[in-house]
Structures are given as structure tokens and as C-alpha cells.
């Protein structure tokens, strides 16, 4: 059974469910990259407007360096499309984010200081750390936020606005991180739950299909049993006296019904008709099935199962034309072996063993007194090798 597909509206561009559940929040998606690019533009505009009075080239260089560090951290995150960020990558992203915030905070001059100048910096830091949380690394995000607050407090003391004001510029990061963490705790396990639900759905569908197939097979067997056995049972119920020919046909019908149950791999109309004719002549026929042909359908003309059944019909036809005693045993071997099926014919001087292999080749071992030509091969001293193509002819 194929995995279900989820489409985004374009029939020629399906998305596998594993891909969807593996990146539940669209991290690294083009839409998120576009949103971050828009935020980057707003960041630059607000920072320039808020720092319009700043005339220090060193300050603007530091602010530009801080922005570049944020861009680098976001770029690393957007390049990773998995659901869990590696610890080393999470550490690098967090370090770049804290460094970007610290560089920006520490470069602000006291004489032109405005609270608005710190807002883009804290917003960028909050967004990146929130994404780290969604990448299943909340501890890195929280440690990074605490470090940024501490360094902002130090920076506030250095530039003269005080450590409380400096630390306070980062405080609105924490409510966002709290919400991101709570959301992550609830939503992050969702891909695993979706995958588990899908596996359960597949298992249930397989079980239902097996139950349906078994019920269909039982109905088919009951129909055949009804068609074959009901007339005989009705005659018995009516007290009919069976003659020798009728008694023989009853035994043949019983044997045929047993074959259907005991050897379903050999079951086909042609095989049933040929077995009936051979048994009617007095030849014993045993059909056995250990499962190697279960994967080959009766309707597939090129399958190994159909090849084995056609060979069996040929052997039965040859017996029916020449013999009125002897035996034939046809066995489907267990799955996993090189030989799929074997047919052993013992009708007086005509003794032979036919084997059908998984690769489609067929070998025939003939007894020395069988009157049939044999070509020695590495499969036995008196073996004739017939390919599946020859058999088709």
C-alpha cells in the first residue's frame, strides 16, 4: 500500500506526509524566508530612523555588525529543514544571536540614546530564539536569552543608562519565549503522533483488507462446495442408490474439493479438469501446497505460478493419453527456496521429475528406462534443462 499524499493544490507536485510532519512549522520554507526578509527591511528602517541623531561612524559600524550577526544566525536556521536542530548548530545560532544583541546594545551612545533604538535588536533576538525553541532546542534559547539580558545590563552600565534600563530592554523577549516553549511542548510531538496515527491507519487497513480477502475466499470456497457437493447430498437425502460409476464420481468430487483446500496454488480450471480425467483413469494424483507460489496470480500469464500450472497440465495430459495406473505428486515448496515447485511422475516405465525454479528455468530428470532423451548437466546425471521461453512455446 502506498503512503497517502497531501497536495498543495498542484496535482503534479505532491508532498509526502513524512515531509509535512517532519517540518510542521514550515521552518526554512520560502514563505518564512520572505517574512524574515521583510522584517530585516523594517529592522534597517527603524534603526536608521531611531538613530538619526547618531554621528559616530564606529557606532553605525557596530550596529551594522550586530545586524550582520542576526542575518547569519537566521541564514543558518533557514538552511536547516529538519525538525530537530543539531546541538552544535543550535549553540552556534544562539551565540551569534547573543553576540548580535550585545554588539548593538554596547555601541549606543548616551547622548543620543532612545529606547526605540533597542527595539529592533530585541525583536530580532526574540524571533531567532523562538525559532530555536521550535527546532526542539528550548534550553539553548533560554540560556541565550538570559545571557543577552545579563550582557545588556552590563552594556547599560557601561554607556551610562544603568544596568536596570539595559536589562529591561530585553524583558519583552521572555513572554514570547514562554509562549513559544508552551506551544512547542504541545505541538512539537505532533509529527510523531501523526506518524503513529498513520501507521495505525495502515495496519487497520491491512487488517481489514486481509479480513475482506479471507471472507471472499470463504464465500468462493462455499460456492464451489455448494455447486459440487449439493447435488450429491440431495441424492443421498433422497435415498438414491449409487451405481459404480456414480460412486467413483463422488470419490473424485471429494478429492477435488480436498485439492482446493489443501493445494490452492495449483487450483485452476485447466488443472482441475486434467486431474479429474487422470484420476478417472485410475492414476493417483496428490497435490500439495507449501506456499512458494502464493505471490503469483492465476491470471498472470507470464508468472511462475502460471508456468508451473501449465507444466502440470502438460504432464497430466500425457498421462491421460497413455496410462491407466501409477501416480503423480505435484508439490509447491515452501517460500524462500531456489525451487518453487516439483512434479514427480511414476507411471510404469515413464518416471520423471520436473522442477520449476524461481528464475523461470525448468529441469526434467528422466529415468534411464523411460525412453526419453536426456542431456547431462550440472544439475544431475540425466537432466534436460528447459527454459521458461521454451516452455511457452
Q: What does this protein look like?
A:
With 393 residues, this protein is an alpha+beta fold. The protein has two domains: 25-187; 261-392. 59% of the residues lie in helices and 11% in strands. It has helices at residues 17-22, 30-50, 57-79, 87-106, 119-134, 138-159, 163-168, 173-187, 190-237, 244-262, 269-281, 304-322, 388-392, and strands at 5-7, 14-16, 284-289, 327-332, 339-347, 350-357, 362-366, 383-386. It is rod-shaped and about 125 Å long. The two termini are 36 Å apart.
Helices, strands, pairings?
Elements: E1 5-7, E2 14-16, H1 17-22, H2 30-50, H3 57-79, H4 87-106, H5 119-134, H6 138-159, H7 163-168, H8 173-187, H9 190-237, H10 244-262, H11 269-281, E3 284-289, H12 304-322, E4 327-332, E5 339-347, E6 350-357, E7 362-366, E8 383-386, H13 388-392
Parallel strand pairs: 3-4
Antiparallel strand pairs: 1-2, 4-5, 5-6, 6-7, 7-8
Helix pairs in contact: 2-3, 3-4, 3-5, 4-5, 4-6, 5-6, 5-8, 6-8, 9-10, 10-11, 11-12
Amino acid at each position: 500500500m502506498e503512503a497517502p499524499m497531501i497536495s498543495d493544490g498542484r496535482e503534479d507536485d505532491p508532498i509526502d506526509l513524512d515531509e509535512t510532519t517532519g517540518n510542521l512549522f514550515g521552518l526554512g520554507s520560502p514563505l518564512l524566508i520572505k517574512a524574515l526578509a521583510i522584517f530585516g527591511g523594517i529592522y534597517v528602517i527603524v534603526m536608521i530612523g531611531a538613530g538619526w541623531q547618531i554621528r559616530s561612524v564606529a557606532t553605525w559600524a557596530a550596529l551594522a555588525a550586530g545586524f550582520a550577526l542576526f542575518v547569519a544566525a537566521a541564514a543558518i536556521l533557514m538552511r536547516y529543514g529538519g525538525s530537530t536542530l543539531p546541538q552544535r548548530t543550535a549553540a552556534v545560532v544562539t551565540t551569534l544571536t547573543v553576540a548580535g544583541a550585545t554588539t548593538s546594545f554596547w555601541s549606543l551612545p548616551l547622548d543620543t540614546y532612545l529606547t526605540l533604538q533597542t527595539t529592533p535588536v530585541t525583536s530580532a533576538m526574540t524571533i531567532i530564539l523562538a525559532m530555536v525553541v521550535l527546532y526542539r532546542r528550548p534550553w539553548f534559547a533560554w540560556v541565550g536569552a538570559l545571557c543577552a539580558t545579563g550582557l545588556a545590563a552590563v552594556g547599560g552600565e557601561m554607556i551610562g543608562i544603568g544596568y536596570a534600563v539595559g536589562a529591561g530592554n530585553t524583558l519583552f523577549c521572555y513572554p514570547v519565549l514562554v509562549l513559544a516553549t508552551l506551544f512547542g511542548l504541545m505541538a512539537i510531538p505532533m509529527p510523531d503522533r501523526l506518524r503513529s496515527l498513520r501507521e495505525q491507519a495502515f495496519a487497520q487497513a491491512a487488517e481489514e483488507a486481509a479480513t475482506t480477502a479471507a471472507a471472499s475466499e470463504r464465500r468462493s470456497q462455499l460456492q464451489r462446495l455448494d455447486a459440487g457437493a449439493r447435488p450429491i447430498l440431495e441424492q443421498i437425502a433422497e435415498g438414491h442408490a449409487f451405481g459404480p460409476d456414480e460412486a467413483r464420481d463422488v470419490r473424485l468430487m471429494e478429492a477435488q474439493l480436498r485439492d482446493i483446500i489443501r493445494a490452492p496454488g495449483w487450483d485452476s480450471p485447466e488443472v482441475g479438469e486434467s486431474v479429474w480425467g487422470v484420476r478417472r483413469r485410475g492414476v493417483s494424483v496428490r497435490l500439495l501446497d507449501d506456499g512458494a507460489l502464493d505471490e503469483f496470480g492465476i491470471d498472470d500469464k507470464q508468472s511462475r505460478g502460471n508456468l508451473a500450472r501449465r507444466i502440470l497440465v502438460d504432464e497430466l495430459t500425457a498421462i491421460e493419453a497413455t496410462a491407466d495406473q501409477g501416480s503423480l505428486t505435484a508439490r509447491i515448496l515452501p517460500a524462500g527456496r531456489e525451487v518453487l515447485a516439483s512434479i514427480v511422475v511414476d507411471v510404469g516405465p515413464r518416471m520423471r521429475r520436473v522442477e520449476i525454479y524461481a528464475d523461470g528455468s525448468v529441469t526434467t530428470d528422466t529415468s534411464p528406462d523411460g525412453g526419453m532423451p536426456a542431456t547431462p548437466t550440472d544439475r544431475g546425471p540425466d537432466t534436460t534443462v528447459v527454459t521458461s521461453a521454451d516452455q511457452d512455446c
